[in-house]
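WP5 quarterly update. Target: Oxidoreductase molybdopterin-binding domain-containing protein. Source organism: Kitasatospora aureofaciens. Length: 427 aa.
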Amino acid sequence: MRRIEQTPPPPGPFRPGFWRSPIRGPWLTSVFGLVLLFGIPVLFVTGALSYAAYNPGLGRLNDQTPDKGLLGFYLFDWPTHPYWLYRLTQGVHVTLGVVLVPVVLAKLWSVIPKLFEWPPARSAAHALERLSLLALVGGVVFEFVTGILNTQLYYVFPGSFYTLHFYGAWVFIAAFIVHVCLKLGRMTRALRSRNLLTELRTGLDDTRPELPDPDGLVPTASAAPTMSRRGTLAMVGGGSLLLLAVTAGQSIGGRLRGTALLAPHNREPGSGPNGFQINKTAAAVGINPAHVGPDWRLEVHGLGPMLVFTRTQLLAMPQQAAALPIACVEGWSTPDQHWSGLRLADLAALAGLPDAGSVLVESVQPPGPYSSVVLRGNQIHDPRSLLALRVNGADLSLDHGYPARIIVPANPGVNNTKWVHRLTFRT
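Structure tokens (predicted):
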């Protein structure tokens, strides 16, 4: 290690004099870090709840991460009450993730000299800190980039988004916890070193560098300031508020839906009873009229012989109604739509399993992710869980799942299977 310390740093960003911003220092870094200290855990928890909502414990059809092992320790039966639960948790997850982008970028800018320290490791403790920083920076970039690309429908990474985002989240949160443990004391001292209100009253002409710090964030030879700390905080905070304004409406709905300029699904796709958002069209997943024409039948399997129904027969049965939204992993959701059809609980009773513990729902959609899904017993027996045949007083459109689709309270949209042709109830 002594030989490494005596080696002069290579030219460029490894040289101490390369980084000269007079506002970079422990205090500003700690302000951004404090925001992330509260924001990142909320992101992680809401993301973990989203994973639980897919009910991966029910088997491979629902589980995009079959090798999760101990990482699935917290999984629980996803509830159906309140019916807007997934709309809330996933809306918070996506909106907060977008809003934190300026803070993450500012935090990375504030600590960029740490990424070019020389020598790379001075001791075992320093090496651990550097490794945690590498995993932290790599993890935060990977999670934010994959998440945002997925919400914008431009996901280009190889492999399943769910798998990569899930494992990436655990790597990132582990590095985050290690980093917090290593830096919490320093962050607390740095925040106490300056008064926030004083900094907010300090303009460009009075901006001075912080005192030299052991982390090397304060430049050894600073340049003249081009922006005050007040201006930096205003720029980052303003950027976050702007992103909030152009994103949150896709989850909140109402008049704010029109302000969700960054949300691909913020626009109403047409008018009329079926004029609300969809994720994928029938054509996009390979559904054609032959799949759902006059020959379509619903098969219901259970304890006794298979039951077969035409759509006309289903419509002739007593119809039930429920007002439920659709909420997607991409963060968008619809207002409550008024669905009508048959209760899953009633269909389970017809199949001879009134106390069914699960149901396998299969679509006429060609095999692929979420063409089939398993629902839990509590989802079956909620009176608002329907095999929907109509919406807002009209027949389902083909894109909304004609001739029949699932709608379940608090269920991720992709698990509300469309174009259903078979229900298999199980004990």
